[in-house]
Amino acid sequence: DAKTTQPPSMDCAEGRAANLPCNHSTISGNEYVYWYRQIHSQGPQYIIHGLKNNETNEMASLIITEDRKSSTLILPHATLRDTAVYYCIVRVAQGAQKLVFGQGTRLTINP
Amino acid sequence: GAVVSQHPSRVICKSGTSVKIECRSLDFQATTMFWYRQFPKQSLMLMATSNEGSKATYEQGVEKDKFLINHASLTLSTLTVTSAHPEDSSFYICSARGLADTQYFGPGTRLTVL
Q1: How far is CA A86 from the centre of its chain?
Q2: Residue B73 in contact with residue B10, Cβ under 8 Å?
Q3: Which of A8-12, A31-35, B98-102 has the lowest mean pLDDT?
Q4: Whether A100 and B51 lie within 8 Å, measured CB to CB
């Protein structure tokens, strides 16, 4: 699976949009971009995933560049409960493919 | 939908005893479940892949005789830490493969070995 690079930490003001970047320059054509987050002392929570088109759900939006070498997770109106470690992972979607977690981005939402 | 539970959420045991952790997919069937371990201030590390009805596949460096995995049904996988020692104290998290091959995670089990 391709490796990802994320900033170790970010801050965002409550109510503003939080934009979390991820670089995956070695991504293969059949690899998807997945985002999970982990709130302190809990299991990771699935947020969103995509292949090449931008995706949106009730939690967030995922913007993938045209060359697929990077992506951005957008939390449109961040709340204090969005404070967590956010993981960007790339992997083949089909089959029982394991997830390899990097160090992620520690996002802190400030009041 | 796609809820995964773990039991117990927290366990304290004496050194040398064995501890069993259960992972259940509550509203979907999971032919594949995964077990992770997370030490303080570190990321999740995959320990093994559990397939229903067959032997688990362990990651390099994980002792299969120490961490026994059983996946006897499509909704239940168990991890038994045998002869636990203080260095096994960690946060153990399972996940289950659901719709569209997305993995959904349990809330985790914090194991403390005295």
Answers
A1: 6
A2: no
A3: B98-102
A4: no
Task: Search chain A and give the residue with CA nearest B2.
Answer: A46
Question: Tokens standing for A28?
Answer: 């293969």
Q: Are A76 and A17 in contact (CB under 8 A)?
A: yes
Are the C-beta atoms of A44 and A38 separated by less than 8 Å?
Answer: yes
Q: Which residue bears the tokens 């501890």?
A: B19
Q: Which residues pair with A79 in a beta bridge?
A: none
Question: Among B91, B90, B71, which residue's Cα sits nearest to residue B23?
Answer: B71
Show the tokens assigned to A71: 């992506």
Structure tokens at A21: 């970047």
The alpha carbon of residue A37 is apart from the nearest alpha carbon of chain B, in Å, by 11
How far is the C-alpha of B57 from the C-alpha of B74, rounded, in Å? 17
Total residue length of chain A: 111
A44 to chain B, closest Cα gap in Å: 6
DSSP letter, residue A68: S
Quick one: tokens of A84?
């967590």
Which band of pLDDT confidence, cut at 50, 70 and 90, is reported for residue A96?
low
